[in-house]
Amino acid sequence: MPDGRTGGTARAFELLEPLVQAATVRVHAAPDGYAPHGTGPTWGSGFFIAPGWVLTCAHVVGEGGAAVRLAGRELGITFSSGADGATGTVTGRVECVLPERLEERRPARRALWDLPDLALVRVLAPITHACVRLTDRGRPRLDEVAYFGCTEDLGAPEITGRTTRLRGTAAGGAALRLGDDDEIEPGMSGGPVVDLARGEVVGVVKARRNNGGGGLAVSVVQLRTLPLAATGQVGLYRRVMQAHDLYHYDQHLSDLNSRRTWTDVHDELPVREDPYEGRRRLTAAERTTLCGLLAELPPPRSSEAVRALVEAARGEEPDPGLPAPLSWRDGLGMLHDPPGGAGEAAAMLRYATDVSVADHREPPAPGADEELWDWVRTTAERLWRPLRRELGERHEQGLAQRDRRRRARADRHPNGHTRPPGTLPQGPSVLLEAWAHGWEDVYDWRVSVLYGPAHPGRVTPVDSGVRATRAGLAEALRVPLAEAFRRCDTHDAAALLEVAVAPELFGLPVDTWTVAGRTPLGVQRPVVFRYPAGSGGGIPNDDEADHRRADRWTRVQAGPLLDERADCDRGRPRTPAPEWLDTLPDNTVPVHCRAADAEPTRGSLYGVRDAGYGVAVTRRPPDDPAADCAPFHRGLREELTEAARGAPLPVRLQALRARAHGADPDAYWADGMALVWEDPARALPEDEPLQGDL
To answer: Which residues contact 302 (CB under 8 A, 6 or more apart)?
Structure first.
């Protein structure tokens, strides 16, 4: 008999194999009419993750080369249609691929496709099929796994599985390394990788090694990087994961089917060595029920709302290196193995208690939050009676706090608005910092979440890099910015992007960059520039200067607004004297119409900062050096007059960009305009990244 570990692996494979095979599919060309045969060669594999949704690799649906489209392409799905081994074929349509830029940037033939190399396919007919159980863990354990896919060992396509072990991760956890215990055959790409110890799918087979066994898989957590939802919409990821959890919840509760479910098999998997397993962790049935009850609630307002509840339940800040949690189930996945030997089940029940009294963005279905709390209370009694008492007090406090928040909002905003129309949200923002790398024309950068007035001084790093060229910054920052936006955007509003750079970089065309889809950042969300903290720029740091900055910020926010040309006089360049800047009224907005990286504008921007002006305007001048700046100044004066005060300016500028993007000629004068926005309530971190080796 093999060793205990291998014996346990064999038993787990025996239990899980029928479930995985039932949900794994063969991907091929779209069927010809109603013909059940003649589907052609196998492109690869995939698997159902929710009713009507198949997950596979982007390179599988890209079969045929660079000439074929990806998103919107129709293909064939052959799936298991019953317990007797029968199969059916249906047409599917590619809903989206990851990363999105694959549509324009295909790799060379036989080259690896960019990570995460995933595709989500919608089935175009109502069918009955099985679904896999996806992990909620952000980082899979390096344990025994099985991978499945379509092979032709005996001359006909069939779904088969092999066992191996995860040997590590790559690309920051986006890819999983598969051991070389067995060979990954052609056609298995896009198939599921199953954690045999926990009975859940952790990856998607991506590639095999050229010299034999082993290869790469994509972590299913990368599904969280699906395209961002438009403001006010649920988003594809949340819809699919809600359907996934409700599928398994319904299967668990149903009495109509006598076949084993994933929940049943979880209870039969070989037990890991843990003497406190019964008390410290929820049972498989409890986990399935909890995920189902959470799925019946409205999705969270934002990723940060989930992270805040996880931190409160876990007792420490969750891992900032994981993709943003977008659903309530993602929060559960961040509560495994809490610190200090604390019980995992207790942490999950604390989290579920807080979710039951959360301020949902829309009313839940009648009784859904009460049903969740009733389940938490009953489950806590099984675990430990004192825990039920603790959770009861937590629930009462949460209800009282929620009622106080709602009454306060009603008093402040009797018409139902949580913030004045046309002003910035006061929650977390995305902070982009960039520093010139010594005397070279390359830049170090950092992307963070800046929590703002609610948590003064709190910053969570998202990613950083060094030595990016000015032209290469947009591509280098595409993925980090997308992740930061996922963390900060809410259902109601897109988060503010704050760009903290030296004034000579205020001409960076950040508003024209694209992160998701084809819509520029400046159209999707408010974008403002800031002077970097700790840059040695010579800002006076005394009480008098602080009072001057505070007074000018307050006056501009209150309005009315006055504009003043700072770097030109009727089109002629000029350098403003410090004495002149000091004597301007506090409600003045200094305006710049020339290039920020050249004089006199560069010096003027430093002078405006030193004089304590927290709001200023600059722009990238037109390509034609002979172009008149008068339309820009005239249009801006009208805009400032209509705005009346400073608070609406970031959102009004976003609206101007949207009009110009939509080919409104009355907004063309604002092309390249940028807003300097030094909000004293949003303090910047004082440090800056280390320079590279000399």
So the answer is: 427, 428, 487, 488, 489, 490, 491
If we measure between CA atoms, which residue out of 665, 630, 667, 663 comes closest to residue 652? 667
- Judged by DSSP in three states, 386 sits in helix
Q: Check pLDDT > 50 for residue 548.
A: yes
- Give yes or no for a contact between 430 and 485, defined as CB atoms under 8 angstroms apart: yes
Residue 432 has pLDDT above 90, yes or no: yes
- One-letter amino acid at 331 equals G
Cis peptide before 99 (omega within 30 of 0): yes
Query: Is residue 398 classed as helix, strand or coil in its secondary structure?
Result: helix
Helix (H) or strand (E) holding 158: strand 158-170
Which pair of structure tokens corresponds to residue 593?
């119409």
Distances (CA, A) of 540 to 537, 556, 607: 9, 20, 11
Using alpha carbons, select from 526, 512, 562, 531 the residue that is nearest to residue 671. 512
Q: Among 123, 122, 140, 126, which residue's Cα sits nearest to residue 204?
A: 140
Q: What is the dihedral of CA 534, 535, 540, 545, to 10 degrees?
A: -60
Tens-digit pLDDT profile for residues 287-339? 999 999 999 999 998 899 999 999 999 988 888 888 999 999 999 999 998 87
**What would the two tokens of residue 127 be?**
């069918």
Q: Which residue, 563, 474, 577, is CA-closest to 522?
A: 474
For 180-211, write each residue's pLDDT tens digit. 887 888 899 999 999 999 999 999 999 987 76
- 611-614 CB contacts, 8 Å cutoff, 24+ apart: 611/548, 611/578, 611/581, 611/582, 611/584, 612/545, 612/548, 612/549, 612/551, 612/552, 613/552, 613/581, 613/588, 613/589, 614/549, 614/552, 614/553, 614/556, 614/676, 614/677, 614/678, 614/679, 614/680
- What DSSP assignment string belongs to 122-157? EESS--------B---SS--S-EEEEEEEE-TTSS-
Greatest alpha-carbon pair distance for the chain in Å reads 91
